[in-house]
């Protein structure tokens, strides 16, 4: 892995950081379209709600945003002060909310090395399925109440409901833009009413203590500073019933993929993931146990990802 100090030094130079971010975005969009993910076309369709006469973002989005947003929510400073994924306002805007789905399909198109990019277009769905398979193997029974922390636009929530169709799911997300797109996607997919959305921080969900069987965080922790990560562990422990579980699916810092990553690629990645260094330093076993969970079990579910599942001690 390229020296952290060198990468951070390069990214501290604003013109270089801005160039890296824009270069990373352009590369992602061009690559997506080259392998069959119509990035720009799908985003445009979402913006206009498939109304070809509409210019800019359709006003109906703003109406739905007001209905789902908590106007009294105080956003953590790490969330408002960082340009996650090269977006100037981070996740607080329509563009990131409308690009999540195409970005996920593109980024995960070649999770497994024996897939070429075009045949790997199911990579995102397969990644999520590999997580659910790990859960089904380790959990003693199907969870009936699930909280999906940092649910984004609900891709993880909708997929979790298909894996556990009898469960009641609650998706918790800081970005009201993401939740608004998530509700649109839920309705369009005609999925049941067993999903509710909560506009809140994962650190302080406001949900009842000891009320759920499973708390899940899918591709969330690599976007957190250590202070927020530890607070979320404590919140997960508060939410889960004794004997319930907390599960994390995320990047695996021990993966040979990241260890062998060329320095310029890692620099581009780091420019869009401001807390990646802190995530790579996080001792998951210690964090689970400090929060009140038993020593967790780890499953390597792809060459780049791991699932970590901890049972709350009685």
Describe this entry's structure for a reader.
- With 314 residues, this protein is an alpha/beta fold.
- It has one domain: Vaccinia Virus protein VP39 (Rossmann fold, 3-Layer(aba) Sandwich).
- Helices cover 46% and strands 15% of the residues.
- The protein contains 14 helices and seven strands.
- The chain has a seven-stranded mixed β-sheet with strand order 3-2-1-4-5-7-6, sandwiched between helices.
- Helix 6 (94-107) packs across helix 9 (176-188) and helix 7 packs across helix 8 (155-163).
- The protein is globular.
- The model has no long low-confidence stretch (mean pLDDT 90).
Large-scale geometry:
globular
If strands are numbered along the chain, what order do they take across the biggest sheet? 3-2-1-4-5-7-6
Largest sheet: 7 strands, mixed
Q: Rg from C-alpha positions?
A: 19 Å
CATH class: Alpha Beta
Strand content: 5-15%
Average pLDDT number: 90
User: Got a strand count?
Assistant: 7
Keywords:
Rossmann fold; 314 residues; 7 strands; single chain; seven-stranded mixed sheet; alpha/beta
């Amino acid at each position: 892995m390229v020296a952290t100090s060198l990468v951070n030094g390069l990214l501290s130079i604003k013109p270089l950081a801005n160039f890296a971010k824009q270069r990373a975005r352009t590369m992602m969009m061009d690559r997506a379209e080259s392998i069959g993910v119509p990035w720009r076309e799908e985003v445009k369709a979402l913006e206009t709600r498939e109304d070809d006469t509409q210019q800019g973002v359709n006003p109906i989005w703003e109406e739905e945003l007001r209905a789902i947003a908590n106007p009294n929510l105080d956003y953590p400073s790490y969330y408002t002060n960082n340009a996650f994924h090269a977006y100037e306002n981070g996740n607080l805007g329509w563009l990131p909310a409308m690009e999540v789905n195409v970005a996920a399909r593109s980024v995960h198109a070649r999770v497994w090395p024996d897939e070429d990019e075009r045949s790997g277009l199911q990579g995102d769905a397969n990644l999520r399925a590999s997580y659910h398979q790990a859960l089904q193997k380790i959990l003693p029974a199907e969870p009936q109440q699930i909280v999906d922390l940092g649910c984004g636009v609900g891709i993880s929530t909708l997929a979790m409901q298909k894996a556990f169709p009898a469960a009641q799911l609650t998706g918790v997300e800081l970005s009201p833009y993401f939740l608004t797109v998530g509700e649109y996607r839920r309705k369009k997919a005609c999925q049941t009413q067993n999903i509710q959305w909560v506009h809140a921080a994962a650190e302080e969900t406001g949900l009842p203590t000891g009320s759920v069987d499973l708390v899940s965080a899918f591709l969330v922790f690599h976007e957190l500073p250590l202070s927020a990560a530890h607070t979320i562990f404590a919140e997960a422990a508060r939410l889960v019933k004794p004997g319930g579980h907390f599960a994390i699916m995320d990047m695996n810092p021990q993966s040979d993929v990241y260890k062998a990553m060329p320095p310029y690629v890692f620099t581009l990645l780091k420019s869009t993931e401001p807390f990646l260094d802190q995530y790579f330093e996080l001792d998951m076993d210690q964090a689970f146990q400090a929060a009140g969970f038993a020593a967790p079990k780890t499953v390597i579910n792809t060459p780049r990802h791991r699932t970590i599942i901890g049972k709350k001690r009685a």
